[in-house]
Amino acid sequence: MLLREFVRVDWERRRGVLLLTSAAFALVPVIALALLASGRRRADGINGVVLSQNAGVLLMGVVCLGALAWGAGTWADERRGSWIYGLSLPLSRVHLFGLRYAAGLAWLAIPLLLLGVSAAMVAAAAPLPAGVYAYPGAFFRWAALTSWFLYTLMFVLSARFERPWASLLLTVFAVVMVGILVNFGVFPMLSGLVEAVVFGTASPLRPLTDGLPLFSF
Amino acid sequence: MPLALRTRGLCRRMGRHFAVRDVSLSVPAGAVYGLLGPNGAGKTTTLRLLLDLVHPDAGEVEILGVDARRLPAEARRRVGYVPERPGMPDWMPVDRLLRHHSAFYPSWNAAYAEELRVRMGIPSDRAARHLSKGQAGKLALLLALAHRPGLLILDEPTDGLDPVARRDFTELLMEYVADTHATVLVSSHIIHELERMADWIGVMDEGAMVAEMPLEAFRGHIKRLRVVPSAEVDAAALPFSLLSRVRRGREELWSVRGWEPEMGPALGGHAVQVREVVDLDLEECYVELLRNRTEARDAAA
To answer: Which region holds residue B245: left if phi is over 0, alpha if psi is between -120 and 50, else beta?
Structure first.
């Protein structure tokens, strides 16, 4: 009952963002394959491969950005009202957070579903260029996992910080710095621990740090 | 006396300073309790602590007999809250906002809500952010009343409203209280208004509770005396606290706290003749009480 109300409010408040994200997600497989195909047609050498890889990375960026934007907009109402209205409702904080999270996730499933359907249709309709061996299943799985992870990250950041995008950039910067420290072997014990947590097999960052099979030639 | 609300030793820090320091407050069930205090006294923070919107650093809060931090949803549904600034999702049209709000309250009375909306003159199709300040204030009250709560917590609800809107607001509130015998805790700067509604008064200053008593006791407690001292008076020896003292020729005007009628004749022993005992209204009592605290603070500084 309450979840339905949260889902409805999400639709009324940010259907524009949702529709835009859905359209972008649905177009990603189409554009990705078109670019890959044109890249491989234009050159047999490394340039064509690099071009198509860069285009692929850009399109992955669209998926990431869509999920981030969706997560960042979750708490806009609460923020505008200094959290007073939301927290004064007869719900525990856990319940409120759970409902908001679930409602956002339910809507995020739509662009992802569109992406999956679009990927399947593209794969069925067009011959895949040589080297593209993980379409559409692995691509969809990557998009779903990454979107879920980034949505959750931004959901948490926007609940906690006034400027979620700035805090995201700081987080990314921190991760990069950790990566550099690990690579240079500064503070070996700490580096080992961080490496295990951030880049280890059980790390939640795994979907981001792993390569995407679609673009592995 | 059953209590609807009770706090003990409530503390909340904001940075290095205490926003609320050792506040103990008791609101009897069925009372209209007026919380007074200058800007920055800690009233809003106290009300937010009561509702667990912010967590206390120390102390305890009981609402309707239950620890506020463990207040179940059913108990929270029996509380209506009008915040200092309405933070509702203001992009929603009023009728949608009412439907949204009603989803959280099984006891929501849609007919009563509609009746209030019409009476308050709030247009149903206008987005809440396009309402006038008076309409927004009334809408906040509507949202707090339509589920018929037994406890109302109002944080400066009429602040910034014009006199007509303020009067409408107060009348609606008093009507509701007369109907339901709800307990009301209301903070306000508009003391005359509070004087018409409240039967209990709490005064906060600098984050602390400095007085809490029934309104009549508060008014009876602080008096202005027109006296003629025949010798130098030792203020410390007087049977009440001398809040302020103004010379007018041979006479002096004293504002005193802790006055009892039988003290008049006894003052002869202190070389003081009481010519008149003047009743003060709530605002004068409040001003005298706070002025004395400010002077004492200045003197200490």
So the answer is: beta
